Amino acid sequence: MAERRYNDKEIAAIFRVATEGPHGPYPDVPAEEGLTVAELQAIGGEVGISPEAVARAAQALDIREASAARTLLGLPIGVARTVNLNRRLSDHEWERLVVRLRDVFNARGRTGSDGSLRQWTNGNLQVLLEPTDTGHRLRFRTVHGGARASIGAGFAALGVTATVAIVNALGALRLPRWARLRGRQMDALAAEVANPSASHPRDGSPA
Questions:
Q1: Alpha carbon distance 67, 80 (integer Å)
Q2: Which of 26, 21, 25, 22 is nearest to 11 (CA)?
Q3: Which pTM value belongs to this model?
Q4: Are 99 and 111 in contact (CB under 8 A)?
């Protein structure tokens, strides 16, 4: 499998994040040509940027590119993240991740396995560990069940026009805030797994 290469815009973003931190959006550009992480680390080393910082920034870029949102009537009701670890997660690492999931989302959840597939679920919140050609892939996804049910009930009881008005009034404040929180939580957990030597702040709330 070909090694991931980063183009000029991605390289600029990686070095900015490696030196300053993630203060802005990553570019949404294809990665058809460019440099590998190892080549970026070599370049960074010449100007005093640690290889670990470059690797974390590159991994964060990959996580951002694999983010997704589910919307209804223009409001976010679902959040998802996917990160290819390019290595196999050990049993101990999976157990530690389950502990972090319970901590971050303030929920015990349930674990399950089917062959090499593993999962942790709590209601609509799912975290899946899947095998790939290069190791494991980690998927986070959730849907705001309360919002979906409320919107459906509104259609049934009030009709389209009234439902849209109510959803826009209530969801404009609540749903985007919820989606941003879930996105930050998933990004932080994915980064912890991808870079276990790095420390990240804990951000917990009910699932």
A1: 6
A2: 26
A3: 0.64
A4: no
Q: Cα separation of 175 and 78, whole Å?
A: 9
| Chain length of the chain | 207
Amino acid in the structure at residue 95: E
Nearest to 26 by CA among 36, 15, 42, 34: 15
**Start-to-end C-alpha separation, the chain:** 36
**Hey, what are 110's tokens?**
């349930």
Q: Give CA–CA dist 109/7, Å, rounded.
A: 40
The region, left, alpha or beta by phi > 0 then psi within -120 to 50, assigned to residue 45 is: alpha
Residue type, 150: S
Output the pLDDT for position 74: 74
Phi, psi of 116 (to 5 degrees): -90, 0
Q: Which of 9-18, 21-30, 90-99, 124-133 has the lowest mean pLDDT?
A: 21-30
HEC profile for the chain? CCCCCECHHHHHHHHHHHHHCCCCCCCCCCCCCCECHHHHHHHHHHCCCCHHHHHHHHHHHHHHHCCEEEEECCEEEEEEEEEECCCCCCHHHHHHHHHHHHHHCCCCCEEEEECCEEEEEECCEEEEEEEECCEEEEEEEEECHHHHHHHHHHHHHHCHHHHHHHHHHHHHHHHHHHHHHHHHHHHHHHHHHHCCCCCCCCCCCCC
> Are the C-beta atoms of 186 and 203 separated by less than 8 Å?
no
